[in-house]
Structure formats: structure tokens, C-alpha cells
Design a protein that fits this description.
The complex is a heterotrimer. By secondary structure, chain A is of the alpha/beta class. Chain A has 13 helices and 19 strands. In chain A, a hairpin with a 5-residue loop joins strand 17 and strand 18 (409-413). In chain A, helix 2 (41-60) runs parallel beside helix 11 and helix 11 (309-328) crosses helix 12 (333-340). By secondary structure, chain B is of the alpha+beta class. Chain B has four domains: 2-120, no CATH class; 132-216; 265-306, no CATH class; 352-482 and 494-649, ABC transporter involved in vitamin B12 uptake, BtuC (Orthogonal Bundle), CATH 1.10.3470. Chain B is built from 26 helices and twelve strands. Chain B has helices at 2-20, 26-31, 33-38, 41-52, 59-67, 117-131, 137-149, 156-163, 169-186, 190-200, 206-216, 246-256, 265-274, 292-304, 314-322, 335-384, 392-409, 413-438, 447-469, 496-518, 520-530, 532-537, 542-567, 574-589, 594-614, 619-636; strands at residues 71-74, 80-85, 90-94, 101-106, 110-112, 218-224, 233-237, 280-281, 284-285, 324-330, 485-487, 493-495. In chain B, the strands form four sheets. In chain B, strands 4-3-2-1-5 form a five-stranded antiparallel β-sheet. In chain B, strands 6-10-7 form a three-stranded antiparallel β-sheet. Chain C has one domain (5-300). The model of chain C has no long low-confidence stretch (mean pLDDT 87). Classes of the chains: A alpha/beta, B alpha+beta, C mainly alpha. Chains in contact: A-B, A-C, B-C. The interface between A and C is large, with 61 and 71 residues.
Chain lengths: 426, 651, 409
């Protein structure tokens, strides 16, 4: 009996919510789909706050198309199936016009079928492994060729690294990225034996053996470099062990793709000075827009908070969406989508980001050295690199391109001149 | 345009000045200004060489300033200065030639030159000649580090010359060793090299192996007919033998352009598609081409017609392989040197193997001590009292957060740790006592309910920690004297913090044994554990004893938390990582016996490292197989390694 | 003359009637077939909740009736989901691949199709070859058999090992937890062949079915309701007969049952395997509704939550398990969904997103301490059943034995 009552009560709540949504038609709804609890909350809460700040700023400027923006925040609680459920709820119950969200690849894969089925619009702000192109998703984070490949080039050319240790957490992003890098390195003449690969679980803390293995790689007289796709707080143990083993950045440099200002806040960086990270944005970027952005962020969230790369991705993505909607004069998904192509917006590091027909951005690649204060000293900045959905360094993907504007296909085989599929295969 | 002109004028002027004012370095810098500003390792070489070889006294200062990222360029005229931070985003600039402060400029008008670490290493190498005989010991050390990083033939002579005048014994030893290594690599006299190899052949250093290994590195080659003369051959390969298959040999031939490539399935499909004529390929209808066999038939027909390259037959492969000779050559031309290097490496390899085992043993010991430390509190609450405390992991977490909070108030790391340890004990002791009084004592006869109730507390505490401290990892920094590692040699090393944890674990073992065997509380605890009613009739208050014992177990978990936080991270999910392992440790070891817990921790630690050693590329697999092993182990020894016998074993 | 099964268990009829009514109501109010008052996403939530109720029934059988606190039943649930997920992914990808390859000039060979499918499925995780465990993925029938067979076999082997060596009580709980942890870690590895952390996704799209999710979600709701109904019937039948008496005996006093000549291990093994199969079927229905399955789903915490649901609902009574699972999981959805109103206290605002887990944890402690009968106890007030007076003694000496307050006369 109780069971029935509770479900009825639940459905009643949903029914009232649905009617409430219909009543409030004078706002434009922006869905925010970031985990506020669970393991990913550490990274994603920041992005939710960023979105709220951006929406407030836009409302202060007078909103969009004469209407105010309204954020609809839901919490998928780092639970991947829940991402799909919440996305459906956002699109059908709250009827949002755009969603900004997700961090992990698996959560994005979980949301994809729902977004494509209901023709939603998602802005995904995090660096990822590529090999995907959905009509309904704009990838504002870096594809592998905007982060991993330039960083590897930097290792090869600037640091003269001849032997690579690819260390990663065992999940999709490191696996695919390392696959691409392995293939890329072999193309550059690095032998099989000179690539050491290791995968560790999430939150791994016992790094002594792995660090010893990496040091031992130097025994054949080649310069060793570490490319780290270690995720989240496992980095803390890794860097502590690295510092304890006395591995200096000049002997064995480490470049990380998942370590930003936020992660460094969790440890004492005095022993890590000189190790590297590759991103499209660092808080230390020297530009007026960035100074203003950092200042607003600190004013809203507190002096101790830092900014990072996915925040910039949301900043660009949100502003592009606003401009595209203004241009299209509508918030209807297909209209906005066509208006997005070629959309330009100044990024925080000084250049201009351009939205490409493959739903990726052209962004500069920055390489920074870790400093004592937990910030990065930018020592290399390229010009804008166009993001590539399908990597050129794996034989299966090399023949694929994504072009939603002219070809209308996210997975076009240039060899057979056919569109493999228009919906994603998740 | 105007700026360019001005810059040109400036250069011209300074050139004139240079003749007048003997030995100014600025013109030289201006000559290479574009390259220096570009800051790429590939193009910077000439600039560094020019400065280093200029023979000017300022060269050393310029290079050092540059490497320290303190060289600034004035945007207005492109001149380079040493910069020093002044107030309010502006910098004092100092002229290299005069050594005088030119003025203070805002950051906007300047550009900092940031050489990356590749360039810094090159600068370091260039600096060697200046620094080897520098009066500052630190700079001489820098020079040696630079040589170590990038050994070069040209550095051998200055290094040799600098050994004799070296006053510092330690540096002198380092220089001698480096000289030996450079001799092996670059000396022109073969006998001297072989002698040096002989001297270093017992050395475990990574640098020795790094010097020797390139000497014996080989490359594969092919020659038609016979092996050419004048090359230092390592081995002659016979195709078809175990390590060198026919396919591999043929691929090598193809790669070197000595033989036609085989037709791959992919290529076959392409060629077939190109040759479709009226719905047929080579006489085979297209619709039938979904069979491998039909495709091969069609392709053969096409090949016959000469439209596509024909298949490479196995007879062709065979004849190609027999008409060439395959061999591996050393890069080093002298056979004597390679033989000596190889034998030295063989000697070292054995030693390295022994030492690696030792290193692995140390790692395993360290891991075992961490597990032991995490589990010892549980050994008390679960092992002695039989209470399943799923919130044990959260007590560890509370200890770690206590350490973090203390560091917020006491900035000195040593003092803060000394304060944090008893405080963590006090906090978790109190939490443990509260939990025992409020929840557990009502459920003593109900272990399964205890398990679930403490699990409820565990999720509540974890969420509470998230609400208070946020989800970000918090820093808990070890005092400076625990930084670094104890290095026995280049192979065996262990960080001081792990040694400290090991000692802490030993101390706790002692404390536990002392409390249980030598104190009244221990006696009473054992009495209550064995027979609470009888103990009560002897005047022991079982409630109080249970409360204190539980508090003790929780308190130790708190201290373990500080230790674990020091070497790993402090997050609200810290406890999760250890709870299952801790239970395993206690169960595998045998409940109710501290030696069992020790044995359990040792077994799990060694096992995990052993599996990691077998499969170094996948640490996750090691954890999986370890748990599977434990499950199977428990099937055969359900009561653990050290099982209690007799009455104490209970049921 | 024995009374009929239904007459002995009036609660079964009531339950089935409630379930039927509930399904009917949801159908009427749904977007797919009815007036559209319940959104599709909520229909999916309800469908999934029914699957959770089914596994809770299984958990009640093993814990509430047999006294074995298994903390690993979500391993079987997840395996069931993986088995059906493999077919769903394979078949969906096959359709795409055949469609795309049919546009090429040369018709594809069988091995080319398989390679292309493998490439599509495993491309994202950096591999492209089919592992051996996908051998039957092309056949729906075989995969459906595997849904029951694989978890059943795992349960059989694990149970046989564990019960044979007389591992009982908390040891068994920890061992089952280790089992599910080992399985989760194994599946986390990319090399395991089930796409590692990404798991199998897009499961809500049935291959070859064009119907919208509004309709598909209802199909699954019905299927879940039928499965729950049948599962409940089966469980009620199992516990009402002699078999039920024996397993209750094992729960309260295992030694005595053994001395009476029953093969305790066989009974335990049977009930363990049976509940594993029920859990697997629940999982196979759950994940196509959730849309994605990955190793995090079978982490030990999930199985502990399962025990929490049963405890809050009231163990040892089947409807208690159903009520507990439905109530807690729906309430959890409500609280974490941000729909629960915040409580401003002036100096601090209680946000339920942050505080829900604290509340759940503490209320769980409270239930264990003060209301061992759980929510099912409320029914006893209504039917005026009382607990027996055993002077504070539990029903038996075993760890899993029922407490005096839990039992009813």
C-alpha cells in the first residue's frame, strides 16, 4: 500500500513539475548536467558554478532574445546511467533549450543516445579521446590533436625525449589517447621497446614500483619522458612519489593531460617545479579578458579558487551559443546548430576560437611548467589548432572525417566516399 | 617599419660602440635576437655557441641569467637585459655589459624569455667550460650535473683538466667517475676505453648502463650474397629460426625495397573495385565477391591479365630469403670495445637482478606495513571484539582530515605532525567511543546488523566530510626531513616517508602487544572477549572494557589516517580505498591474533607486488588477481593463516 | 487436506493485484499510450524500480529467509545486464555496419563484417578484435540463455566453494563482497573485453525496433512488472513449502538442521544459485532501461545498498523487500534530483543534495536499532500481529537468526 502511495506521490510531483514548466514560458532554460555528488563532484561542481556565473553575467547584460536565461541544475551524482535519465528529464520535463554538462567520456556516451533521440544540444567542455562526432554535441574541450599530439611533439623536438613512459588510469581516455600516441610515436621512428605503458586503477596510491620502473628505463642511455594521463586524485600519490624519488623535471620530464590548477591545489608543488602540463588554457595566461575572468570568478567564489581549462571551454561554448542564437534569432536546436558553424569568439588566452563544421573548436595549445605556487608558467603556445574528431594516426580512423555543415555526416569515409552513420554508435 | 629601422640603427650603433667599448655582449645578443626570442631547441644552437665561444667575460652571466628565466627583452628596441621583479608588475632591468640598472619598466613593455628545459640543458652544457673551475661549489656541481645529463666528447678534455685542481673531495670523486664514463664513450684510445669499461663493470649506476648500452645497441641489416667487410657484426640471423621468422625477414626485405610487397586483403579489395567491368571482375560476378575464395579467383584472373600485380608466391619468398644475408651490426666500430662492454653489462645485469628483487621486497614490505597500519585498528575491533565496523575506513579518513586541519593552524610541518598524531587519536577515540555507546553495544550478539548499521554510519560520515571539507583533495604535507628517499644504490631505494610508516607500524605492533599482554585493560579485554559473563562476575565492567577497546581500535585508525594522508592524499573517499583490503588482511591472517594480521598484511603486500612484477603494465590486474587469490585461499583456510585453536576459537 | 497455496498466502494475491493496478495506472497516465501525465523518464524510473524490487525479493530470500547476508548479489544483477547488453550492442552495430558496407562496390565478406563490428564496438577503447566472450553475441537466444547461465554458474561455483568449507556469518558477507569487488575490478580492465570503464552503452535502443522511447519504456515496464510478479510468486511458493521451513531453520539454527539430517550445504547452494538467477533476470531487464552498464554498477556499495533496502522494508517478509526497494530508491531519486525543497535555517541552508546521504545513513542506523521490522512492521499494526514473547531471546543462536522483535506470532 505504502509502495503505491509513494509512487503516486512521486508521479504527482512530476505532474506538477511538468505543468510548472509550461507556465513559465518567458524564460530560456539552460540545462546544467554536472555531478554535484559522488566521485566526479570534485571536478564538475566547479563547472556548475562557472555556468551559473556565466548565466548571471548574460542576464545582467539583458539576457538573450529579450528573455532572461534560467539555469536548470540537476545532479546526476557521478552515476552514469543517471546521466541518461537526467538528460531525458531536462529535455522532456524541464524542456531546456541547451545543456552544458558532462565530464567523463562514459557519462557522455550515456547521454548521447538520449540527446540524439530527442534532438537536444549538448556542450561538452572537457578534453577527450576523440573518435566520436555527434550531430547534437559541440565538443569545446581538446581533441587528441589539440593536446596530446602537440605535447608529444614538444617532448620529441624541444626536450629530445627518445623513450616514452605512457602512464594512465585504466579507462577510455588514457587507453585511446595512448593508442593514438603509440601509433604516432612509431610513425616518428620510436621503437616498440622504447614505449612503456602502464595502467593503474582510479585513486591509485601505491606508486613506488611504477616510479622505480620509469627511472630504470634510463638504463640504455636514452632520454626518458613520461606522458601522464593519470586522472584525478591518483596524481597526488604519483607526484609525491616522484618527488620522493628525486626525479627532477630536467632528468625525466612528466607532461600531464589531466592535471590542472584544481588538481595541484591538493598538494605541495615545491618538489614538482618544472614538470609539465598541456592544456588549451592556464590561469596564468597573460591577457586582459583572462584577468577579468579570473577576477570575477574569485569575486564570486572566493579568493582561494582557481580557474582551469574546462571552465574556459564552457566560457567559449556558452558565449558562442548566445551569439549563435542571437544570429539565428531563435533558440531552436537546428537553427542554432547551423548558426554555430564558423562562430568566432575570443578565447581567454588571447587568440580567437572558431567553431568548425566537425563540432570541434580551433584552439591554441599551451604547455606550462609547474611553479611553486601551484600555477603554471606558460613556456610554449602554438597558434590555433583545429580539432580533429577522428584521429589521423590510427589506420581505421584516418580515413574518416566529420563535416556536419556540408556533408551532413559525422563519420564520413573518404576512401569509399560514403557516410558510415549519421547517428552515433555510442 | 620605423621600429625595424630603429632596431637596425641600434645594432649599427652598438657595433660602433663595440669597437670603442671593448667586449660588449649586447651586439652579439642582438645578432641572434630573433632565434633567442623564438626559443626553440632546434634553432637555438648557434646562438648559445656564439655566446659561449665569444670569449667575453659577461658570457657566463648572460647564460646563467637566461637559464634562470630572468632575461627580459625590451619590446621597444629589442635589447636584452637581466630583469629583477620590482613592485607592482614592473621590473628593474640591468645591462649585461655595464652591470648598471637601466631603469624600471612595467611588464607590458617587456617580454620575458622562457627557455624550456631542453634549451636550459643546452645552456647548461655550454656553461660547463666556465663552471668546472668556478670558485662556487654549487656551480661546479651544476656543471657536473649538466655533463651527466648530456655527455659530449668535447667535454672530456676540460673535465680531465679540472680534476686535479678540485678542492672538494666529494666533487672530485664525482668528477673522476664522470671522467671514466666519458672515457668509455668518447676516448679515442681503444685500450683506454676497454680499461675504463673494466673498471666500471661492477657498478650498479644507471649512468654506467646508460653509457654501455648504446655501445652494444644493434641495427638489422641486409646484404645481397655475403656479409660485407669492415662492420662490427653482432650476430648473423637465419630466417626461419625461433627469434627471426620468415615473415619478419621478408617484411624487412620489403621495407628495404629488395622485394615486392605481399598483396593484403585490403589492397585486393581496392584493386577489385577498380576493375569492375559490367558487373563482373575478372569474370566473377560482383555479387559473388562476398567470399574470400571468389575474390582470390577474381584477383588471380586480373593478375593473369596483367591489370594488377600478381600474388607473391611462397617459392618467390623463399628464393628472396636465400639470396640475401641478414645480420645485426653494432653502431660502435671496434669489436674489442663491444665485447668488453657486453661482458661488463652481463656482469652488471646479474647484480641489477638481485638488487631489483631487493627493491621489490622493500616495496612489498612498505605496502604490507601500510595495510597492517590500516588494519591494526580493525584487528582490535573485529579480531578481538568480533565487531564488524564498516566505518573503520571513515575513522582513517577522520584522522587524515585532523592532520589537514592541524596544518591549517600550525604552519610548521614537523610540529603540526607531532600535534596531529595525538589529536587524531583523541578525535577518533572519541568518535569510536560515541559509536560504541550509541549503536554497537545494542547489537553485540548481532554481527550482521552491526555490519549494516556501521555501514549506515560510514555513508553518513563520508557525506559529512564532503559537506565540511568539499570534494577536492586536501594537502597534508610531510615535514621536510621526510622528503626524499633512502638510496642504497641506483636500483634500490625507498622513500623516507615509507620508512617512517614502516617504523610506525612496528611501534603499533609493540603498543598493541604491550596493551594486550601487560596492562590491566588488555587482561580485561581478553577476559571479556573469552567469556563476558564470567568476566563480569569477576568484577570487570564489560561495558566499560568494550567501550575502551573499541575506542582504542578507532584511535589507532585515526593515527593510521595521518600516516596514509602523508604519503597519499586526503579525500572523503580515502576510507573506501582501504576498508575492503583491511578486512581481507584481518580475515586472511586469522581473526583474533595480531600476528595473524601481520602475516595477512605481509602476504597481501608481497602477493600484490609479485603479481605487479609479473605484469608491470597493468596494476589493476594485480589487484583483481590478488582478491581472487584471497577468495580461493579462504576456501582452504577459512580461519586464516594463524587460526585460533581450542576454546578461544569460539564456535 | 492441505490448504491451497493462495489461501495460505493471502498477501501474494494482494500484492499481485496492487502490481497490476499500478502497471495499469502508469500505462493510462503515460505519454506512450495514455494521457501523458507521467513523463517517459519517470516511466523508465518506475520500470527500473520494479527491477530493483525483484532483486530485493531475491535478497530477501537469501538474507531474510536463509540468513546469509550476501553482499554480492549486484554482481549477478550486473552480469545479467552485461549478457543482454552484448547482444543489444552487437546487433545494433551489425545493422549499422551492414547498411554502411552495402554501399561499397564490392560486397563485404563475413569476416569483414565481423571486423567492422568489432572495430565499431571496441574502437573507442583502443582495440578492434572480438574477445572470446563475445562468441555468442550474434544470437539473441543464446545470450538470453547466458543471462541465467553465467551468473548461475558463478553463483554455483562460488557457493559450492564457500559453503563446502563452512564459511558462514560475517566471513561469508566479506567474501561475497570480495567477489563482487574482484569482478568489478576485472571488468574495469580494458583487456577484459567488455569495454572497461565505458561498459556497454546505448542499450535503450532496441535493434530493428523503430518505436519511440515513449512506447519502448512501457514495454519494459510491463516486462518488469511481469517478471516481478512471477518472481514474487516463485519466492512465495519456495518459502511457503517444506523447502521454506528448512531454509528458515538454517537461518535460526543451522547446526540443528544439520543434525536433523538435512544437507544444509545443498539447500544453501540451491537458494544462493536461485537468487543469483533471479537477480540476473532483474539485471537483464534493468539495463536496457538504464541505457548503459559499466563496472561501477557492480561495485560493492551497490550490494550493500540492496541490503539496506531490504532492512528498511523489513526482512523476512517478501512484500517488505519490495516496499523497501521501491521506497528508498524512489526517495533517493527525489532527494538527489534536487526536487526536495531546501530548508533554510537562517545561519545555514540544508541542501538535500548534500544532506540526503547523511539522512539515509542515520535513518538506517535508527531502523536497525529501533525498528527491526522495518516498514513492513506497519502492516503488522494493521493486521494486529504481535511479536512472540521469547524473553529477549532471538529465534535461534545463529548470526542471521531473526530477532525477537522481528518475528511475528
Amino acid at each position: 500500500m505504502n509502495f503505491l502511495k509513494s509512487t503516486l506521490a512521486g508521479s504527482a510531483v512530476f505532474a506538477t513539475l511538468a505543468t510548472a514548466a509550461m507556465a513559465a514560458e518567458d524564460t530560456i532554460k539552460v540545462g546544467v548536467l554536472h555531478s554535484l555528488s559522488g566521485t566526479m563532484a570534485i571536478s564538475e561542481t566547479t563547472l556548475k558554478d562557472t555556468m551559473l556565473m556565466l548565466i548571471d553575467q548574460q542576464n545582467a547584460k539583458g539576457g538573450l532574445l529579450g528573455k532572461q536565461l534560467e539555469a536548470v541544475v540537476v545532479d546526476p551524482a557521478s552515476d552514469w546511467p543517471l546521466f541518461a535519465e537526467k538528460a531525458r528529464e531536462l529535455l522532456t520535463v524541464h524542456e531546456v533549450d541547451v545543456i552544458f554538462g558532462n565530464w567523463t567520456s562514459v557519462s557522455r556516451k550515456s547521454v548521447l543516445p538520449v540527446i540524439e533521440e530527442l534532438n537536444g544540444l549538448l556542450f561538452y567542455p572537457v578534453q577527450y579521446e576523440g573518435e566520436e562526432s555527434s550531430k547534437n554535441v559541440f565538443y569545446t574541450g581538446a581533441a587528441p590533436n589539440q593536446q596530446a599530439i602537440p605535447a608529444t611533439d614538444y617532448f620529441l623536438e624541444e626536450l629530445g625525449v627518445e623513450k616514452f613512459a605512457l602512464l594512465g588510469t585504466d579507462y577510455v581516455y588514457p587507453r585511446t589517447t595512448n593508442n593514438i600516441l603509440e601509433s604516432y610515436l612509431k610513425g616518428k621512428g620510436i621503437a616498440d621497446d622504447d614505449i612503456f605503458v602502464n595502467y593503474t586503477p582510479f585513486g591509485h596510491s601505491d606508486w613506488s614500483k611504477i616510479v622505480a620502473d620509469v627511472v630504470a628505463l634510463g638504463a640504455d642511455g636514452k632520454k626518458v619522458g613520461v606522458i601522464s594521463t593519470i586522472n584525478g586524485d591518483a596524481n597526488i600519490g604519483f607526484y609525491k612519489e616522484l618527488a620522493a624519488a628525486g626525479v627532477s623535471a630536467d632528468d625525466i620530464p612528466v607532461v600531464a593531460f589531466s592535471v590542472g590548477e584544481e588538481e595541484l591545489a591538493g598538494l605541495d608543488t615545491s618538489n614538482l617545479v618544472g614538470h609539465l602540463a598541456a592544456w588549451n588554457y592556464f590561469q596564468s595566461a597573460d591577457s586582459d579578458v583572462n584577468a577579468e575572468f579570473v577576477e570575477t570568478w574569485k569575486a564570486t567564489m572566493g579568493e582561494a579558487r582557481v580557474t582551469n581549462d574546462p571552465m574556459e571551454a564552457h566560457y567559449i561554448g556558452f558565449n558562442m551559443w548566445v551569439n549563435a542564437a542571437t544570429e539565428a534569432g531563435s533558440i531552436e536546436v537546428d537553427a542554432v546548430r547551423s548558426a554555430m558553424y564558423g562562430q568566432e569568439y575570443p578565447n581567454l588566452t588571447g587568440g580567437t576560437a572558431v567553431m568548425l563544421p566537425n563540432h570541434h573548436l580551433a584552439k591554441p595549445v599551451l604547455i606550462g611548467e609547474i611553479q611553486e605556487d601551484g600555477q603554471f608558467d606558460i613556456i610554449s603556445q602554438t597558434s590555433e589548432v583545429p580539432g580533429d574528431a577522428w584521429t589521423d594516426y590510427l589506420p581505421e580512423s584516418a580515413v574518416l572525417v566529420s563535416d556536419w555543415k556540408d556533408l551532413g555526416c559525422g563519420m564520413y569515409n573518404t576512401e569509399t566516399k560514403t557516410c558510415v552513420q549519421t547517428l552515433s554508435n555510442y | 617599419m620605423l621600429r625595424l629601422f630603429l632596431a637596425g640603427l641600434a645594432i649599427l650603433l652598438s657595433c660602433v660602440m663595440a669597437t670603442a667599448q671593448e667586449g660588449a655582449i649586447q651586439p652579439l645578443l642582438q645578432e641572434h635576437q630573433a632565434v633567442i626570442a623564438k626559443s626553440s631547441r632546434k634553432t637555438i644552437g648557434p646562438a648559445i655557441d656564439a655566446i659561449a665561444n665569444s670569449g667575453l667575460p659577461q658570457a657566463q652571466v648572460v647564460l646563467e641569467t637566461w637559464a634562470a628565466k630572468s632575461m627580459w627583452m625590451r619590446k621597444s628596441d629589442g635589447l636584452l637585459f637581466a630583469g629583477e621583479k620590482a613592485e607592482d608588475k614592473s621590473y628593474h632591468l640591468t645591462d649585461f655589459d655595464t652591470g648598471e640598472v637601466v631603469g624600471t619598466f612595467p611588464k607590458k613593455e617587456l617580454k620575458q624569455l622562457k627557455p624550456n628545459s631542453g634549451i636550459r640543458a643546452m645552456i647548461g652544457t655550454a656553461l660547463v667550460q666556465f663552471q668546472l673551475l668556478d670558485s662556487d661549489r654549487a656551480k661546479r656541481q651544476d656543471a657536473l650535473t649538466s655533463i651527466q645529463r648530456d655527455p659530449e666528447a668535447a667535454l672530456l678534455a676540460p673535465l680531465r683538466a679540472s680534476i686535479k685542481p678540485e678542492p672538494d673531495a666529494d666533487l672530485k670523486a664525482q668528477k673522476r667517475r664522470l671522467e671514466r664514463l666519458l672515457t668509455i664513450g668518447y676516448d679515442e684510445d681503444t685500450a683506454a676505453r676497454i680499461a675504463a669499461i673494466g673498471e666500471m663493470s661492477g657498478d650498479l649506476g644507471v649512468d654506467v648502463r646508460a653509457t654501455l648500452n648504446p655501445l652494444v645497441a644493434t641495427t638489422r641489416n641486409i646484404a645481397p650474397g655475403t656479409v660485407p667487410n669492415g662492420v662490427n657484426i653482432a650476430v648473423i640471423l637465419v630466417p626461419g629460426e625461433d627469434s627471426f621468422s620468415d615473415a619478419e625477414a621478408y617484411d624487412l626485405l620489403v621495407a628495404k625495397g629488395f622485394a615486392p610487397a605481399r598483396v593484403t586483403a585490403d589492397e585486393m579489395r581496392h584493386r577489385l573495385a577498380e576493375n569492375i567491368e559490367g558487373g563482373k571482375v575478372g569474370g566473377v560476378p560482383v555479387v559473388q565477391l562476398d567470399e574470400e575464395e571468389a575474390r582470390a579467383r577474381a584477383y588471380a584472373a586480373l593478375a593473369e591479365a596483367g591489370k594488377v600485380p600478381s600474388f607473391v608466391t611462397s617459392a618467390e619468398i623463399h628464393s628472396a630469403l636465400t639470396s640475401y644475408v641478414f645480420y645485426e651490426t653494432y653502431a660502435e666500430p671496434s669489436a674489442k670495445v663491444t665485447t668488453a662492454a657486453q661482458s661488463a653489462l652481463d656482469k652488471i645485469a646479474l647484480k641489477v637482478g638481485v638488487n631489483q628483487t631487493l627493491d621489490l621486497t622493500l616495496d612489498a614490505l612498505s605496502l604490507a606495513s601500510i595495510y597492517f597500519l590500516a588494519a591494526i585498528g580493525l584487528a582490535i575491533t573485529f579480531g578481538v571484539m568480533g565487531v564488524i565496523n564498516m566505518a573503520h575506513g571513515e575513522f582513517i579518513m577522520m584522522g587524515a582530515y585532523t592532520g589537514y586541519v592541524v596544518q591549517q593552524f600550525i604552519p610548521d610541518h614537523t610540529v603540526s605532525i607531532i600535534v596531529a598524531i595525538p589529536l587524531a587519536f583523541a578525535v577518533t577515540f572519541a568518535a569510536g567511543v560515541a559509536m560504541e555507546r550509541l549503536v554497537i553495544r545494542w547489537l553485540y550478539a548481532r554481527p550482521l546488523e552491526t555490519l549494516l548499521a556501521t555501514f549506515g554510519i560510514s555513508i553518513a560520515l563520508q557525506q559529512l566530510a564532503k559537506n565540511i571539507f568539499g570534494t577536492q583533495a586536501r594537502p597534508l604535507t610531510a615535514p621536510g626531513w621526510l622528503d626524499g628517499a633512502w638510496m642504497m644504490n641506483d636500483v634500490v631505494s625507498i622513500s623516507y616517508i615509507r620508512i617512517a610508516i614502516f617504523i610506525l607500524a612496528l611501534i603499533f605492533l609493540g603498543v598493541f602487544l604491550f596493551i594486550m599482554k601487560r596492562t590491566r585493560l588488555g587482561l580485561e579485554t581478553r577476559a571479556v572477549t573469552q567469556n563476558p559473563r564470567m568476566a563480569a562476575s569477576m568484577g570487570i565492567n564489560p561495558g566499560r572494557v568494550n567501550m575502551l577497546t573499541f575506542g582504542l581500535g578507532s584511535g589507532i585508525a585515526g593515527i593510521a589516517g595521518v600516516a596514509i594522508g602523508l604519503f597519499a592524499k586526503v579525500t572523503s573517499e580515502l576510507g573506501n580505498d582501504y576498508i575492503v583490503q583491511s578486512f581481507m588482511t584481518v580475515v586472511v591472517g586469522g581473526v583474533g591474533n595480531i600476528w595473524g594480521t601481520l602475516a595477512g598484511a605481509a602476504m597481501i603486500g608481497f602477493l600484490q607486488k609479485g603479481i605487479e612484477w609479473l605484469n608491470p603494465s597493468n596494476t589493476l590486474a594485480a589487484q583483481t588477481y590478488m582478491i581472487v587469490f584471497i577468495i580461493i585461499f579462504i576456501q582452504f583456510r577459512p580461519r586464516g593463516i594463524i587460526a585460533l585453536k581450542g576454546r578461544a576459537a569460539g564456535d | 487436506m492441505q490448504r491451497s497455496f493462495i489461501a495460505k498466502n493471502p498477501s501474494v494475491l494482494i500484492f499481485l493485484a496492487c502490481l497490476a493496478l499500478f502497471t495499469l495506472m502508469v500505462t493510462i497516465f503515460s505519454e506512450g499510450f495514455g494521457v501523458g501525465m507521467i513523463s517517459t523518464s519517470f516511466v523508465k524510473t518506475l520500470g527500473k524500480t520494479l527491477c530493483l524490487c525483484l532483486i530485493a525479493v531475491a535478497m530477501d530470500l537469501i538474507w531474510g529467509f536463509t540468513g546469509i547476508l550476501s553482499l554480492g548479489h549486484f554482481a549477478f544483477f550486473g552480469l545479467g545486464g552485461y549478457m543482454i547488453g552484448m547482444w543489444l550492442m552487437y546487433e545494433r552495430t551489425r545493422l549499422i555496419v551492414v547498411e554502411s558496407l552495402s554501399q561499397t562496390e564490392i560486397p563485404p565478406t563475413r569476416s569483414e563484417i565481423v571486423d567492422a563490428i568489432g572495430n565499431q564496438i571496441f574502437g573507442v577503447v583502443g582495440a578492434n578484435e572480438f574477445p572470446l566472450i563475445w562468441a555468442f553475441a550474434d544470437s539473441l537466444f543464446l545470450q538470453l540463455v547466458l543471462v541465467v547461465l553465467v551468473p548461475g554458474l558463478l553463483a554455483l561455483v562460488f557457493g559450492w566453494l564457500a559453503f563446502r568449507s563452512r564459511v558462514t556469518g560475517v566471513y561469508l558477507s566479506i567474501l561475497t563482497q570480495a567477489m563482487t569487488l574482484a569482478l568489478a575490478l576485472y571488468l574495469f580492465q580494458n583487456d577484459s573485453g567488455l569495454r572497461g570503464n565505458n561498459g556497454l552503452s546505448g542499450l535503450q535502443n532496441l535493434p530493428g525496433v523503430d518505436a519511440s522511447q515513449d512506447v519502448v519504456s512501457l514495454w519494459f515496464l510491463w516486462a518488469s512488472a511481469v517478471a516481478l510478479g512471477l518472481g514474487y510468486l516463485l519466492a512465495a511458493w519456495v518459502v511457503s513449502g517444506k523447502f521454506g521451513s528448512v531454509i528458515r531453520g538454517i537461518r535460526d539454527n543451522e547446526a540443528r538442521v544439520r543434525f536433523l539430517g538435512y544437507s544444509v550445504e545443498t539447500y544453501k547452494l540451491m537458494i544462493f544459485t536461485l537468487t543469483a538467477c533471479i537477480a540476473a533476470i532483474a539485471g537483464a531487464l534493468y539495463y536496457p532501461q538504464a541505457g548503459i552498464i559499466n563496472p561501477a554498477e557492480i561495485a560493492p556499495i551497490a550490494s550493500i545498498y540492496l541490503a539496506v533496502w531490504v532492512a528498511i522494508g523489513g526482512r523476512g517478509r517478501l512484500y517488505g523487500a519490495v516496499i523497501g526497494a521501491a521506497f528508498v530508491s524512489l526517495l533517493s531519486t527525489w532527494f538527489t534530483g534536487g526536487q526536495a525543497p531546501n530548508i533554510p535555517l537562517g545561519f545555514y541552508t540544508i541542501k538535500w543534495v548534500d544532506w540526503w546521504l547523511v539522512l539515509l545513513g542515520l535513518s538506517f542506523v535508527a531502523v536497525t536499532l529501533f525498528a527491526p521490522k522495518g516498514m513492513g512492521g506497519l502492516v503488522d499494526y494493521w493486521t494486529q500481529r504481535r511479536s512472540p514473547n521469547r524473553h529477549g531471546a532471538n529465534l535461534g543462536p545463529n548470526d542471521g537468526a531473526m530477532r525477537e522483535q522481528e518475528a511475528s506470532k
